[in-house]
Design a protein that fits this description.
The protein contains four helices and three strands, in the order ααββαβα. By secondary structure, it is an alpha+beta fold. The chain has a single domain, classed as Fe-S cluster assembly (FSCA) (GMP Synthetase, Chain A, domain 3), CATH 3.30.300.130. 18% of the residues are buried. α1 crosses α3. A three-stranded mixed sheet has the order 1-2-3. Helix content is 36%, strand content 20%.
Length: 96
């Protein structure tokens, strides 16, 4: 079975940021998804570099993508370049 970017996006839409209670895809925390054979690399960020839920969130992403795709490996790389900024639409949703 071929793993697709669309399949991974649908999985990431089910992973919520525990602090904000919105999914990490909608929040714009996912910067890139790379698929090579049965290996997945996800480049993402957190809402803040000091996110207390960071390790839990990374594990949740790995577990959900592994379970949902049948990938052999899922690596999640965290970057803060560029720093996360909510979109105008997201600001309106969050009321900020």
């Amino acid at each position: 079975m071929t793993i697709t970017t669309e399949q991974i996006i649908e999985i990431l839409k089910q992973v919520n940021d525990p602090e904000i209670q919105l999914d990490i895809w909608t929040l714009g925390l996912i910067y890139n998804i790379k698929i090579e054979e049965k290996k997945v690399l996800i480049i993402m960020t957190f809402t803040t570099p000091t996110c207390p839920y960071g390790p839990m969130l990374l594990q949740d992403v790995r577990t959900q993508v592994l379970d949902g795709t049948g990938a052999e490996a899922v690596d999640v790389e965290v970057t803060f370049d560029p720093p996360w900024q909510p979109s105008e639409e997201l600001r309106a949703t969050l009321g900020v």
